[in-house]
């Protein structure tokens, strides 16, 4: 039998040629694979009614009227929560109902956004709990006027806010939309969205977790006046820093020097007002204040678009800051930046050495709640490299030291019973609705960030206003007069405290818990502060002109 000839004799005889051919073949396969992957990744999403497709990144923005996805690779947990929204809305029959929009960034991009999918779940659960209570109990007026919840998406970094708000306005009348809640973070984009919804769509906007002091004023391009239809249930940054200052002053020994690690970005109202308030309120007699600036990337920064993650971008700056921080040798650091950037700061602090400042106390604003459970931060706390505190918008244990004698604590326990499906800890009873739908049964640790309570309260305020205004469907802006009446005399029971608004739409006398984060990702309230000076615990009784502790500012 003649020998079998190789099919490619030149390749076998010339090893170098063989290697080149193999490399070329492999490269061709990889390139083909990348092209296939790109084609799959860039394949269009089927955006449903009320939505439109945007690119960079690919997502559906607008108001989600049929419960479809916002992005191609959404986590299963978000899909499951959307299914709950669809199921709850399907129970609302007939033509007499109102719709509340929860408007957020529902398609965050890892490494680019400071919002994460994990941070969105408690927010959505809080809104669903509010809708369940509104439709199946008498907690917020008669369920005879039921409520639908629809989700609105402004896209990554809120970059498609203009499309989102216009699509909400286009569908408002047909879908019975009477208010927009949520907004997410205090950025230039969310501020512009709130102003447009108020000025152009004439819809009330009730912010849940927006704390930037200037969020209730028009962007400078629009004159900078007050946003007429804007309200919020969250405390402002100014009040949060006052609470932090009171906490810091009470530490023993009292810190003699504070380094303010401050983000100098100009496009983030949360950050800019936090920096301003920290520089003003943290100073004290005999105390040294050292500003240590950094600059986070703006939403339009091309570095993030070219593949550099926000984390790596900031690690470079914190690495250079390290020597200055060691030189200042502070007793305490106030981190005036986004919570999602804390892990980059902590990582460089630990890996470059703590220069003798063991267990450095770090205090931050409410956005630090996003770092609960972050492995880098947890390890640093467990190793006693840092101790971390933040001023929360609300916390799951803030009322424990006060007890059930306070009506505010009873309100929270009613919410918690609905949220978890567990017995009310004040009465020992489970919350029973009308039997048409079971109460939610979410995880108790989803309450740790406090965002579920704030979103619940924003939706509750919207529902209460719609039910009290007979003209809400024909003229949603008429609800502003109702919301103005939610003041010290006519407060609404909320999960995070009593809901009462001042003339500027800001909340009146909100409690601010100071929360400590444990190395195992747990949280505990170490102090409950009242920037207004007096605890607001009870509703007014007959004959009182206002609730004790509530001051009309």
Structure description:
Helix 5 runs parallel beside helix 6. This protein starts with 8 loop residues before the first helix and ends in a 24-residue tail after the last strand. With 553 residues, the chain is of the alpha/beta class. Among the domains are: 182 residues, Rossmann fold (3-Layer(aba) Sandwich); 155 residues, Response regulator (Rossmann fold). The strands form two sheets. The protein has a seven-stranded mixed β-sheet, with helices on both faces. A seven-stranded mixed β-sheet has the order 9-8-10-11-12-13-14, sandwiched between helices. The chain is built from 15 helices and 14 strands.
Order of helices and strands: HHEEHEHEHEHEEHEHEHHEHEHEHHHEE
Task: Examine the coordinates and then state which fold CATH places here, giving the name of the CATH topology of the domain at 51-232.
Answer: Rossmann fold
Named at the architecture level, the CATH assignment of the domain at 51-232 is 3-Layer(aba) Sandwich
What is the class of the domain at 51-232 in the CATH system?
A: Alpha Beta
Question: Into which percentage range does the β-strand content fall?
Answer: 5-15%
Largest sheet data = 7 strands, mixed
Radius of gyration: 26 Å
Shape: globular
Q: What is the typical, i.e. mean, pLDDT? A: 89
Relative helix content: 25-40%
Measured distance between first and last alpha carbons: 103 Å
Order of strands across the biggest sheet? 1-2-4-3-5-6-7
Helical/strand content category: alpha/beta
Number of separate helices:
15
Low-confidence stretches: 1-41
User: How many runs of DSSP E, i.e. beta strands?
Assistant: 14
């Amino acid at each position: 039998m003649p020998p079998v000839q190789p099919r490619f004799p030149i390749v076998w005889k010339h090893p170098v040629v063989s290697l080149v051919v193999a490399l070329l073949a492999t490269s061709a396969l990889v390139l083909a694979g990348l092209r296939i992957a790109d084609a799959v990744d860039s394949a269009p999403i089927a955006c449903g009614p009320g939505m439109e497709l945007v690119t960079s990144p690919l997502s559906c923005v607008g108001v989600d009227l049929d419960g479809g996805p916002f992005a191609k690779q959404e986590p299963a947990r978000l899909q499951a929560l959307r299914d709950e929204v669809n199921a709850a809305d399907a129970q609302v029959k007939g033509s007499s109902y109102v719709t509340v929009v929860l408007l957020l960034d529902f398609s965050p991009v890892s490494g680019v956004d400071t919002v994460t999918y994990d941070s969105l779940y408690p927010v959505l659960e809080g809104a669903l709990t509010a809708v369940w209570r509104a439709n199946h109990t008498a907690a917020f007026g008669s369920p005879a006027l039921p409520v639908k919840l629809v989700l609105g998406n402004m896209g990554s970094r809120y970059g498609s806010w203009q499309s989102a708000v216009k699509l909400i306005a286009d569908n408002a009348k047909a879908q019975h939309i009477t208010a927009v809640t949520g907004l997410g973070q205090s950025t230039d984009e969310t501020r512009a969205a709130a102003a447009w919804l108020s000025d152009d769509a004439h819809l009330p906007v009730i912010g849940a977790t927006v704390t930037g002091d200037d969020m209730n004023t028009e962007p400078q391009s629009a004159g900078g006046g007050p946003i007429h239809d804007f309200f919020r249930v969250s405390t402002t940054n100014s009040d949060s820093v006052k609470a932090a200052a009171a906490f810091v002053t009470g530490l023993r020994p009292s810190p003699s020097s504070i380094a303010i690690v401050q983000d100098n970005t100009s496009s983030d109202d949360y950050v800019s007002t936090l920096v301003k308030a920290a520089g003003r309120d943290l100073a004290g007699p005999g105390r040294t204040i050292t500003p240590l600036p950094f600059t986070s990337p703006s939403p339009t920064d091309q570095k993030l678009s070219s593949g550099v993650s926000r984390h790596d971008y900031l690690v470079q700056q914190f690495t250079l800051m390290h020597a200055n921080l060691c030189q200042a040798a502070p007793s305490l650091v106030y981190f005036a930046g986004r919570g999602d950037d804390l892990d980059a700061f902590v990582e460089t602090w630990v890996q470059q050495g703590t220069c003798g400042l063991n267990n450095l106390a770090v205090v931050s604003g409410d956005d630090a709640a996003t770092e609960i459970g972050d492995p880098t931060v947890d390890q640093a706390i467990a190793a006693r490299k840092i101790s971390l505190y933040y001023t929360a918008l609300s916390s799951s244990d803030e009322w424990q030291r006060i007890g059930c004698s306070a009506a505010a604590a009873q309100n929270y326990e009613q919410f918690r019973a609905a949220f978890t499906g567990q017995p009310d800890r004040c009465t020992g009873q489970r919350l029973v609705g009308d039997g048409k739908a079971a109460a939610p049964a979410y995880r108790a640790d989803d309450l740790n960030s406090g965002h579920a309570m704030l979103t619940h309260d924003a939706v509750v305020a919207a529902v209460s206003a719609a039910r009290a205004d007979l003209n809400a469907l024909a003229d949603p802006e008429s609800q502003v007069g109702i919301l103005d009446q939610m003041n010290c005399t006519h407060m609404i029971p909320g999960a995070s405290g009593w809901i009462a608004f001042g003339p500027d739409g800001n909340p009146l006398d909100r409690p601010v818990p100071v929360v400590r984060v444990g190395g195992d990702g747990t949280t505990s309230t170490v102090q409950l502060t009242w920037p207004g000076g007096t605890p607001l615990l009870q509703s007014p009784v007959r004959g009182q002109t206002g609730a004790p502790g509530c001051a009309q500012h």
